[in-house]
Amino acid sequence: MSNDPTALTAASSAALVKSGELDASDLFEAWLGRAELDTFGALSWIAQAGESPEQVDGPLGGVPLAVKDLFCTEGVPSQSGSKILEGYKPPYTASVVEALAKSGAPLLCKTHQDEFAMGSSNENCAFGPVLNPWDKSRVPGGSSGGSAVAVAAGLAPWALGTDTGGSIRQPAALCGIVGLKPTYGSVSRYGMIAFASSLDQAGPLTQDVTDAALLFSQMIARDPRDATSVGHQESIHLPDRRDLTGVRLGVPEELSGDGIEPGVRATFEETLERARELGAEVVPCPLPHAPHALSAYYLIAPAECSSNLARFDGVRYGQRVDPGDGLDAMYSATRAAGFGPEVRRRIMLGTYALSSGYYDAYYGRAQRVRTLIQRDFDEAFANCDAIVTPTSSSVAFPLGSRTADPLSMYLSDFCTVPMSLAGIPAISIPNGMSEGLPTGFQIAGPAFAENSILGIAHALESSIQFDRSGARV
Amino acid sequence: MTDWEAVIGLEIHVQLATQTKMFCSCSPVFGDDPNTHTCPVCLGLPGALPVANAQAVHLGLMIGLALGCSLASQSVFHRKNYFYADSPKGYQISQFDQPLCGPGNLAGVRIHRVHLEDDAAKLIHASESGRIAGADSSTVDFNRAGTPLAEIVTEPDLHSAAQAREWLALLRTTLRTLGVSDVSMDEGSLRCDANISLRRVGDQTLGTKTELKNMNSFRFVERGIEAEIIRQRELLDSGQTVTQETLHFDPRSGSLTTLRSKEEAHDYRYFPEPDLLPVEVTEAMIASARDALPELPIERAARYVSELQIDDVLAERLAGDAELAEFFDAVVEAADKSIEARVLATWVSDDAAGRAGDDGLLASKLEPAALAELVALVDDGSITTAAGRTVLDQLFEVGGSPAAIVSDQGLGKVDGGDELEAAVDAAIAAEPEAAEKVRAGEQKALGPLVGVVMKHTSGRADGGEVRKLLLERLGS
Ligand SMILES: [Zn+2]
Known about the structure:
heterodimer, A: alpha/beta, Amidase signature (AS) enzymes, 2 domains, B: alpha+beta, Arc Repressor Mutant, subunit A, 15 helices, binds zinc ion
């Protein structure tokens, strides 16, 4: 064993703390030292050295946590990647961050993200882009890009992100780590600065599948402050599955055929072959409405965000620009100066989609498509235990290569958005390399089947033996 | 000149008397220092989420039941999006196409719907009038933000300003009886908007309507509607048309000003609130709301008529005022059963309520049991009606026991004997001309003589007895 505790996974460190071989304060200080090595623009805030938090005896063993900027943390800047919230320090802490601290994962640092979680490259961050540690000329994915980089580069042992249409899974794939988007409703959204309420869900970004299971096991809760939270139907256990005997994996042609880069497709096929070797049955599994998911998503999410972001008006908090010409002028000036171009674009899209006379044609129809997609998954899961796809159609792309074309950027979420619309859990695990960059393998299951997909992910992970050392600073 | 018929519908906002606000756990209080009852939710801080108040749903169901509404089995909150400084979230959470309560009826006026929503913050404008026009600056008090509101919308079934006011008063009494709200127009816990249009008598189609906003007293509701009816009639009589717009009535000047025209109407971009689940209204919730219903004014009036033999007009007057009816019920409860309820009703409605004025009976020192005792003293002839009223004055001011007041102040009836005879003699001496007329057989001249006797005895003498004694003395 190396003497450097930051070389271990979070679960291994937690076990050493619990057995008394490792001191939690020393562990915190060691990780503070790692966080200081950030040369990727991943971190927005780092805890003060020498101020290691009070130790709690919890299942997470004092292993500190990187938290995406959009989680409210009392007295600590929570800006959601936006200029309009620059320096904003909330008076309260998000339920899930509070719960994890109580379970023994204190706040180590906060991470940069696309503004209000709108983006797939982390280039829409008001505080500068985040760079991919495998290749600094490339994006880390988004919107939880800072969290993904923090884990991949070894700046933090594990991280909290949020996923609306792929914002955990896609950066996890592009950075060569594990990312889990849980079942909608299993984790409280209270204190998460909202993007699209019916889709946003917090989840772990971790070094391996075991860490993801461990962190997620302490996130699930029915929160009386979030009416849409239901908690979980079962407790989450650490996966130990090594084979896939008796498991049926469904492969939807719609999400694994056209549009997937050849290199990504090759690693996907390789992993399917491994699955068969482990005993899985791989079957085709149609999701006929999945190709319409992106269109529905880009109506529903902007519609909700146009309303969710109305509160940023310069009256009570955040930036205010007041030309001194009345309330409406202050709103316009504040929001024009405070929001970046992608956020403004989506607010406009959403406002239009909800307008009287257009509601049925846009928002209403998008919701009907969403229902059809949910039905597709219900039917698919009658024939298979999990659905597998590449997480992202491409490896990490060069900075600036898609910023001029929003539609090509939106296509980054092609494989992840259907699961978001259906509210079902999906995990991305590292799947080998293409063009010297990591690819991701996505495993989706029925609602509340996290234990099942974590088990499948664990078995595949053991077989793939992905080497993530290339990203560590 | 054409005969015009006014067609009026009302929209009433009622602040519900819940322990906590509609979507957070702050207490909804009136009159405290600004911004002392706030939290991340009602301030609309980033990341905060609403949770629907079960008690507000319960009170909403009670209102629905009291107004004879059909109750939804599922009700959905929507977001009503608009930018204004009184709207911390940039949207109001309100019910749109699936309100808690559907069609109903109160006293012949059809209820269109009753739904729940959260109140806006209160803007305080630094101007002489307190209105935004001419204000140098405005501040926001978020104490009110998130207070639960029930919005009650009627069909356009009212046809005059007076009728609108009268119906609104009945609605207020009904809500007060339910205990769901303070229903104070002064404090804004009851607010009324009116939709007004005119049409030719006999026409079925509705004319163009205007909306009159935020009238904050019963008197202003009546005056505002009246002013708008007159304005519309003058327009139509002179061949002009009514423009659809939202108006404000200024009670000081009596004038109507445009708040916004149809073109400026908001597109609220309603959509289902994704942060809340639909409210599932269960049989148990309905049963619980039904169990909580007290006797309603209309039912109470019917009971007064059928069980207490009180006439319709008096019964409606008593039942139409929740406080008065409660007081009356307590008097009936305390009174000897031999006393007729309609006698008690007259004392409560005419004598007691007449003295109470605007503050109401409950603000006086008068106890129901004391009034019951007082009526018993009058009823059994211990004191005269006039003396009873004197005692009532005392009870109002200082309270206490009627019997004690009667004995302390010597208000017991003058029963014949020396005192009465002396008073009669004194009266004859004081009014010799009248006495002479009576002697001459002119009975109506008795009046002034009786008056003098009553004055001397402070009303404690029985009128019949005084007449009898006077006639004996004057030998006619
Ligand atoms: Zn509050």
